[in-house]
Amino acid sequence: MTLKDNKKEIALLGVGLLLVLLSIYGIYAQYGNMGAARETLEEEEMKLGQAEDRLSTLMALKEQEEEFEERLAFLKEALPEVPGESALMHTILTAADRRGNIEDVRISTPSDQEDFSEIPLTFSYSGRYRGLVEFLDNLQRDRRIVRIDSITVSEGRDGFPSIRADITASSFYNE
Predict the structure, then answer these.
(1) What integer pLDDT is reported at residue 21 of this predicted model?
(2) Do 86 and 17 belong together in one domain?
(3) How sure is the predictor about 63, in pLDDT bands with cuts at 50, 70 and 90?
(4) Range of the structural domain that residue 43 is part of
(5) In this predicted structure, what is the pLDDT of residue 149?
(6) Do 98 and 152 share a domain, yes or no?
(7) 107 and 57, same structural domain?
(8) Pairing between strand 100-107 and 111-112?
(9) Which member of 46, 88, 99, 145 lies 3.0 to 4.6 Å from 131 by CB, making a disulfide possible if both were Cys?
């Protein structure tokens, strides 16, 4: 072999070695990119799982929409947007339901709270003890919220078993 042939072989061997090195570098770079792509894929799969969980929660809430609408309507009745003193009087008088008499109803000026207004009221119930219990039960079952703050029970005008109950209560409305 001649020197010229050796130079050609060395040049070809150098080019071949360079191609092998370039191929190895390309494979290494692709492997690095593949690792980054795997991390991105894992992050995206995690985000997809979170989105699917959120979607299933929202779909479950959507299925309960009618129930939530009913609850909202109930709460709007329990906590009306206006004081509605006449409706409040009606609630109290209706709760007595002919088992006793409601007297001396006094509705005070509403006081503003953080998210609602409170209407203090006082009144007296005259009747029998069983009637008082039924009155309080009827008041509790009414849609309008009425909180009993205190009850003072004493002997009625006609003596026992007739009683008189002086009641301090509060009702509420949404501003």
Answers:
(1) 84
(2) no
(3) confident
(4) 1-63
(5) 93
(6) yes
(7) no
(8) unpaired
(9) 99
Distance CA 155, CA 103 (A): 15
- Residue 101 forms beta bridges with which residues? 126
The answer to the question of residue 53 being in a domain is yes
Is residue 80 scored above 70 in pLDDT?
A: no
95 and 147 housed in the same domain: yes
Q: Are residues 51 and 118 in the same domain?
A: no
Mean pLDDT, rounded, for 128-152: 87
CA distance linking residue 125 with residue 105, whole number of Å: 10
pLDDT at residue 151 tops 90 = yes
Same domain as 84, residue 59? no
What whole-number distance in Å separates Cα of residue 94 and Cα of residue 107? 17
User: Is the model's pTM score more than 0.85?
Assistant: no
* Residue 161, preceding peptide bond in cis (omega within 30° of 0): yes
Q: Is residue 90 domain-shared with residue 7, that is, in the same domain?
A: no
CB-based burial label for 83 (10 Å; 0-12, 13-18, 19+) = middle
DSSP sequence for the chain: --HHHHHHHHHHHHHHHHHHHHHHHHHHHHHHHHHHHHHHHHHHHHHHHHHHHHHHHHHHHHHTHHHHHHHHHHHHHHS-SS--HHHHHHHHHHHHTTSEEEEEEEEPPPEE-SSSEEEEEEEEEEEEHHHHHHHHHHHHHSSS-EEEEEEEEEE-TT-TTEEEEEEEEEEEE--
* pLDDT in the model for residue 59: 87
